[in-house]
């Protein structure tokens, strides 16, 4: 597994497409695709939104994350900044952070993309 993380709109998806020769059909959007296809998708983008959807459906996002078998997971860093007042938003951020830790642990390589520039923070270039 490969994880790509970073802030919103930093070029994570574009980097993944180039680096791993991903076609549009290889990429599932965690915010809108059928949750059941995510486990085995070649690439998931916006995984943080999948976590939000799983929580809203009353499912365990960490149990789901533990069973991921996909090649590339792309997720925004959402834990920085002002702590939300809304409890559900705090719970989502907490679950997303924990899911990100699980994915990073399972990943051979973890990239952080900032301003379109990828930096390896775990492993070696694939």
Explained architecture:
- With 126 residues, the protein is an alpha/beta fold.
- The chain has one domain (2-122): Rossmann fold (3-Layer(aba) Sandwich).
- The chain is built from 5 helices and 6 strands, in the order βαβαβααβαββ.
- It has helices at residues 12-20, 35-38, 47-56, 61-66, 87-106, and strands at 2-6, 27-29, 43-45, 72-76, 109-114, 117-122.
- A 6-stranded mixed β-sheet has the order 2-3-4-1-5-6, sandwiched between helices.
- Helix 3 packs across helix 5 (87-106).
- The longest helix has 20 residues, at 87-106.
- The model has no long low-confidence stretch (mean pLDDT 93).
Please write the string of helix (H) and strand (E) elements. Answer: EHEHEHHEHEE
Helix tally equals 5
| CATH class assignment | Alpha Beta
- Class by alpha and beta content: alpha/beta
Q: Could you say what the CATH architecture is?
A: 3-Layer(aba) Sandwich
The N- to C-terminal Cα distance equals: 11 Å
Based on Cα principal axes, name the global outline: globular
Poorly predicted runs: none
Radius of gyration: 14 Å
